Amino acid sequence: MPLHPAEHDRKYGALDQVLRSHLGRLAHDPAALDAYLRHTWRSGPPWAIAVAEAQLREFAQHPPGRVRMRLGEFYEPPDLGLAEGEFGDFLLALADRLAESLAQGPGSAEGPGPLPTPPLTHWEWHARFPELGQLLGGWFSQDTPDEFGDHATALGDYLDGTDGALVARLSGELHELLALPLDESALTAAVATLGMEVAPPAPYSVGAWLEALAAVLHETATPRPS
Q: Taking the domains of the chain in order of start, what are their residue ranges?
């Protein structure tokens, strides 16, 4: 039988995050692990890096045997395009890089991880802006014109069915996105990465629409005096 979710997370959860940060990239692309380290040092929990290092080494040295594979009680890593026989060495190389980052530590002159930048990978965009990705991918996909007719109706549907705490989180993520040093072209690429598949409503540019959206959400999340 498959692994119970709690057992999966206990044994492989941190490892899985590291590997999934490489999806859509070449396995040995350093930008993928830089993105993981940048996000985890910034947003935490930082101890997940140490847990991931231990899980990577354990899995590399003790992959599942034939019995566990026959029973289905094993972790199946995502396909990163590695040739047979390369996977164990790849895991150990990742673990070594995590160990280097941990050894530098927050007090190091070099800092504990890559310098803060706007997200650089698909995984990092969604890890840093999860609720914005939920809104854009769920309510502003290519089906939006058929489902809702216009942007205002789509946003209203999101607000009607979403807990206020998540709306407040979305508001914070929008302000954080707008604070990044991104020009209009980069903002357009960012919202596309986060799942938006329709153009903003006329006459807005992407940046202007995001600012208008942030204003609406701020008004929605601001408590009114009684």
A: 5-104, 129-221
